[in-house]
């Protein structure tokens, strides 16, 4: 399947999302346990919502970024499958006497397939199955046919994740492909990038304090909650305003550009000014990417891939304001 452009996706698309893992926590103390581990409030997470949450090292650097939601008795953490096992193992080390059990729910029957649906025609297409759609980003609807989570908008239109069984997907996916553009998992990644939502993967673990990837702007950090690993550094970055770095949206006319690659400002060619967080094919022969870098480099606008003589980055408009932290 050839890569699609943002313009094509904006009309309406459906993709089977691959490469995601799912950790399930069961037990009466699951929420309090996670509340003491993650950057966001878990204890007050309602069944009708989802939240972003980060998992940091003691140095305040992100080991993982989650989409998090709950059912009646289970809390789910979605993350890239390539880092699921080590992250799940690390979390399990801290359970101690807490009444909670972590398990791999990636292939659980009710969550076996994840569809990504977005673009202007997405709500109309989904109304064939859902009488009521999630009204705002990070609202969630539980249904006989699965779980529907509205995530951050992209291309000026809503986006949804629909978790379902294989049997449901066998009928739903062809029906949706009759109404929307059939797309690949890479297209979903492109929509995530255009929504400005970063995802920590293998090549970017322990590289970023949450604010470097705009995580508090996306509601992924709660500064009023109690302690968690790295909390002191995350709070200091916020309130002392010493973190003059952000993540922004760019287009790079180089198909080889990938997460973890460094970028350089032409004004300061000797050292990297930032790093690619996520990248996906943009349908035009290159990639669109979220790139973390110094605010000064964003403002100057002359940044290149790999070296100060590399391919130039083309800055695109972010879907939200990059509030600086130089308070």
UniProtKB/TrEMBL annotation:
Annotated GO biological process: iron-sulfur cluster assembly
Segments traversing the membrane: none
Top-level taxon in the UniProt lineage: Bacteria
Protein name: Folate-binding protein
Organism phylogeny: Bacteria, Pseudomonadati, Pseudomonadota, Betaproteobacteria, Burkholderiales
